[in-house]
């Protein structure tokens, strides 16, 4: 698959690049950002996948988070894909900010007209890693995933649906129980139809109940003053309770004064 | 090297010249023109014809120069040193001359300011620029960077300085000793002189006395005899007079009338008869001959004889105590005799030096030996003894030597093995002196115990002033650590060893800090809070004990590295584990102040509550799998304190804590339960990342 480099900037001794390629899963051109630390020049590095939240692109994380120094020091390759297919010309894709463009919810849609393009789950778990492994100095055995909000949801479900694939998963203010929250209900009914049993396959709280429980390190940070928390969009308690019952190790940190914004990074 | 013969043909000697020239160049380092330019004052040497001066041909030029000189001076061979010397002079001359006349002369080692020497040729012992190393002269020589050479030169000098210092001390001590010997010799010989003088005077006096006596005696005898004889003479004379008188009377009588004659004759006959009956002593009253008078010189003989008899010896000189010659129970005393006296044996007396007034009961012991040294045993350790020695022979005892004080070595210390604390890089050892009186210092010895009984390298730390030492060690080794006490007598025997494994950090819980309701196990690693509220014995409250919080602190080695340990907990108990500084307020709860950081677990069925407390604050944290074993990583360098669930290698929380002071592990039990510490664990991989 041909990669077209869109940009490249030196940062903390490494390189922050953006590439574009033709995605098979999503049937459109997709961009992703990738940071290569100095260590990547001489050897393979662990890969860390970042999934952004609603309305974001591949740019938000690399511009606003300031993660480069840490990635450089620790020798991590950080890959930040886009949050949904773009330019597919599907009717209604730009109508809402929390559904369609910029709101892929990291699922493989089964409903028309989304099912052709909206296959972010497969993109993130299959196509993108294969692409990265083939073209960049990453160690395929050392992969982790993290994300914010919708991306947090994406990180959790990718990890829970693929035991052993990711070494660790962290989430900032994730949507933990989409089946029960307004965002989730809207997105899933749009992408997956009305059969709620299909929804559970993409719900972290449900997934953890049947997670075979191999070594998985889960860290969740949640801002206490996050309005989406109080709006019942995120529902971390449900997830925690399920994990506690299942004895899945999670460390959940409730941080004072933190809101839902990108600056959280 | 091209050889352009100049001047007269020289044949085979040319080769020799070339080689020798090179050798000399080499030998006298004559490439440096600066050196030579100065030497060249007057120009009295003959002019030398030279045509070109590129570097390649300089040898030729030189060659011709010296050859010319050689010719002039009439040298054939190169044997004698004198010749070489002259040759060198000639050579130098020529060379210098060239540089003066021809400024474009290229000198390989001219020192430019920009290009200072930066390497050192150990073979030629010259500083060079790195480029020069490549030149033929230094090919194959050992070259080191100049800084390295400087360092090793400095090291040499320093070492030599140390040796000089040592020598100074030794010589000073020896000078003192020599003085003492000097004085003793003066005294001893002075005594001998006096001795002899008095002996000799005695003899003279005795002889003079005898003379007087004898003369007197003779005089007396003579007088006696003479008087006796004179007496006899006088009585003889009297006798004669009487005889003569009688004779005259008789004659007169004979001339008298018959009647008168008969009368007088009878009377006369009577008188005559009486007179002649009286014995005339015609024996000599005194014999003229001298009686046999042998003078009695026996006492003089005796005196003369005793001049040659061996006197009693002079006092020996006790040597000062040789360093490290004593053991804990014996000292080796040595002395010397600085005269030619004959000695049959020595008597060494000693007694312990005690503080306080003399006159206290000193028991003095004495030993008789034939040699000039003696090992005196059965002494008390770390004690001073006063020694003096007397020499003895047939004539008697010498005066006693000066008193010298010797000291026995101390008893070995006793390491407090229960108080040993260690980590990967160091160990803190404490011990008891083992001696009642103070010693000078302690020595700590370490050996890596590769195999029991194997003789490894022993590292010593000397001059330890107090009964504790922090020693640096290599990680992941086992060490046997010994301590010796040291005084002027020497080192004590080794103490019993303490074994230290530098696999991780080792510490014990400190009973001194323990709340009365906590019981600490014998090995110092388990804390138990029993169901009973009141303990069986209530020790008095102390500022070192926790009074409110049922807590105890450990003693971690004060080393600013990384320390890792694990605490086994009971899921259902309420406990707190973490670290606190030594002066944490003991009447407060752990985590309630700025001097403690800890993780607290509270079990209120069915929920587990976890807090990470410092200065009364905690983040809001939920943990889904309650840990059974908590790993704690204290990292001074990164100023962090991290907690882990050991069984699933899960990171729980990390404090960022500024730690200017040292902190110690601490734990408390809010309800009856049990906490057990696991020590000496190397930092696990997953933990090492934090």
UniProtKB/TrEMBL annotation, chain A:
The keyword Hydrolase is assigned to this record: yes
Coiled coil feature spans: none
Main EC class the enzyme belongs to: hydrolase
Tagged with keyword Hydrolase: yes
Main location group: cytoplasm
A UniProt-annotated Pfam family: Esterase
Xref: Gene3D superfamilies: alpha/beta hydrolase
Locations listed in the record: Cytoplasm
NCBIfam families cross-referenced by the UniProt entry: fghA_ester_D
Name of the featured protein: S-formylglutathione hydrolase
Source species of the chain: Pipistrellus kuhlii (Kuhl's pipistrelle)
TrEMBL record, chain B:
Keywords per UniProt: Coiled coil
Classification via InterPro entries: B30.2/SPRY, B30.2/SPRY_sf, Butyrophylin_SPRY, ConA-like_dom_sf, E3_ligase_FN3/SPRY, FN3_dom, FN3_sf, Ig-like_fold
Pfam families: fn3, PRY, SPRY
Matches recorded under CDD domains: FN3
Protein name per Swiss-Prot or TrEMBL: Fibronectin type III and SPRY domain containing 2
Domain B30.2/SPRY: 487-686
Positions in coiled-coil regions: 201-228
Organism: Pipistrellus kuhlii
């Amino acid at each position: 698959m041909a990669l077209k480099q869109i940009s490249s900037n030196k940062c903390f001794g490494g390189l922050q690049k953006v590439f574009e390629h033709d995605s098979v899963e999503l049937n459109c051109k997709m961009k992703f950002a990738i940071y290569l630390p100095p260590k990547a020049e001489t050897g393979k590095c662990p890969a860390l996948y970042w999934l952004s939240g609603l309305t974001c692109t591949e740019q938000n994380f690399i511009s606003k988070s300031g993660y480069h120094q840490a990635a450089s020091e620790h020798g991590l390759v950080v890959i930040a894909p886009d949050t949904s297919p773009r330019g597919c010309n599907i009717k209604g894709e730009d109508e809402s900010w929390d559904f369609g463009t910029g709101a892929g919810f990291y699922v493989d849609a089964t409903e028309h007209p989304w099912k052709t393009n909206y296959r972010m789950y497969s993109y993130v778990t299959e196509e993108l890693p294969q692409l990265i492994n083939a073209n960049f100095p990453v160690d395929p055995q050392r992969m982790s995933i993290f994300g914010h909000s919708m991306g947090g949801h994406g990180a959790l479900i990718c990890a829970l649906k693929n035991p052993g694939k990711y070494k660790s998963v962290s989430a900032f203010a994730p949507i933990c129980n989409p089946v029960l929250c307004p965002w989730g209900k809207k997105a899933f009914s749009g992408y997956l139809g009305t059969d709620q049993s299909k929804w559970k396959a993409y719900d972290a709280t449900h997934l953890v109940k049947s997670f075979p429980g191999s070594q998985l390190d889960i860290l969740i940070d949640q801002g206490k003053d996050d309005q989406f928390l109080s709006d019942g969009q995120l529902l971390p308690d449900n997830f925690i309770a399920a994990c506690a019952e299942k004895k899945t190790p999670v460390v959940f940190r409730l941080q004072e004064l933190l809101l839902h914004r990108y600056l959280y990074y | 090297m091209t050889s352009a013969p100049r001047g007269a043909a020289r044949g085979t000697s040319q080769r020799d010249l070339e080689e020798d020239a090179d050798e000399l160049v080499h030998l006298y380092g004559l490439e440096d023109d600066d050196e030579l330019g100065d030497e060249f004052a007057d120009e009295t040497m003959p002019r030398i014809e030279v045509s070109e001066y590129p570097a390649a041909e300089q040898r030729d030029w030189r060659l011709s120069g010296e050859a010319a000189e050689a010719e002039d001076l009439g040298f054939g061979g190169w044997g004698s040193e004198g010749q070489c010397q002259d040759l060198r002079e000639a050579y130098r001359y020529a060379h210098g001359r060239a540089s003066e006349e021809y400024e474009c002369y290229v000198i390989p080692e001219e020192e430019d300011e920009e290009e200072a020497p930066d390497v050192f040729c150990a073979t030629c012992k010259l500083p060079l620029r790195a480029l020069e190393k490549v030149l033929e002269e230094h090919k194959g020589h050992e070259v080191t960077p100049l800084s390295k050479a400087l360092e090793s030169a400095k090291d040499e000098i320093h070492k030599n300085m140390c040796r000089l210092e040592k020598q100074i001390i030794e010589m000073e001590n020896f000078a003192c000793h020599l003085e003492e010997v000097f004085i003793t010799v003066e005294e001893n010989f002075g005594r001998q002189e006096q001795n002899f003088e008095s002996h000799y005077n005695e003899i003279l006096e005795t002889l003079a006395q005898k003379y007087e006596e004898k003369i007197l005696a003779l005089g007396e005898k003579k007088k006696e005899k003479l008087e006796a004889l004179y007496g006899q003479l006088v009585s003889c004379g009297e006798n004669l007079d009487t005889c003569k008188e009688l004779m005259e009377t008789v004659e007169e009588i004979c001339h008298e009338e018959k009647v008168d004659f008969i009368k007088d004759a009878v009377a006369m006959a009577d008188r005559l008869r009486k007179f002649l009956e009286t014995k005339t002593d015609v024996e000599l009253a005194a014999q003229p001959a001298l009686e046999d008078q042998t003078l009695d010189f026996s006492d003089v003989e005796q005196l003369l004889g005793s001049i040659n008899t061996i006197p009693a010896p002079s006092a020996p000189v006790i040597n000062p105590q040789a360093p490290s010659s004593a053991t804990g129970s014996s000292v080796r005393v040595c002395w010397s005799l600085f005269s030619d006296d004959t000695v049959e044996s020595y008597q060494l007396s000693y007694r312990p030096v005690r503080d306080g007034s003399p006159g206290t009961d000193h028991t003095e012991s004495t030993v008789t030996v034939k040699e000039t040294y003696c090992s005196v045993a059965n002494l008390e350790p770390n004690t001073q003894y006063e020694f003096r020695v007397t020499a003895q022979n047939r004539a008697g005892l010498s005066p006693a030597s000066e008193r010298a004080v010797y000291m026995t070595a101390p008893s070995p210390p006793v390491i407090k093995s229960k108080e040993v604390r260690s980590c990967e890089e160091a160990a803190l050892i404490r011990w008891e002196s083992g001696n009642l009186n103070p010693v000078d210092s302690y020595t700590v010895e370490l050996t890596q115990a590769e195999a029991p009984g194997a003789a490894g390298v022993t590292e010593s730390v000397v001059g330890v002033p107090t009964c504790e030492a922090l020693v640096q060690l290599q990680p992941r080794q086992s060490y046997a650590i010994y301590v010796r006490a040291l005084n002027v007598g020497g080192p004590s025997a080794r103490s019993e060893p303490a074994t230290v494994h530098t696999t991780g950090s080792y510490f014990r819980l400190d009973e001194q800090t323990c709340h009365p309701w906590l019981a600490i196990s014998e090995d110092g690693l388990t804390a138990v809070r029993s169901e009973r509220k009141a303990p069986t014995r209530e020790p008095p409250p102390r500022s070192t004990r926790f009074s409110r919080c049922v807590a105890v602190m450990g003693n971690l080695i004060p080393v600013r590295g990384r320390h890792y340990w694990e605490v086994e907990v009971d899921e259902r108990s309420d406990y707190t584990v973490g670290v606190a500084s030594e002066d944490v307020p003991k009447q407060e709860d752990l985590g309630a102040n700025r001097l403690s950081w800890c993780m607290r677990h509270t079990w209120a069925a069915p929920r587990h509550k976890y807090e990470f407390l410092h200065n009364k604050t905690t983040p809001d944290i939920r943990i889904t799998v309650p840990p059974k074993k908590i790993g704690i990583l204290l990292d001074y360098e990164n100023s962090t304190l991290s907690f882990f669930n050991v069984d699933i290698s899960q990171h729980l929380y990390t404090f960022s804590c500024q730690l200017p002071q040292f902190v110690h592990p601490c734990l408390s039990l809010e309800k009856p339960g049990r906490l057990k510490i696991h020590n000496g664990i190397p930092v696990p991989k997953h933990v090492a990342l934090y």
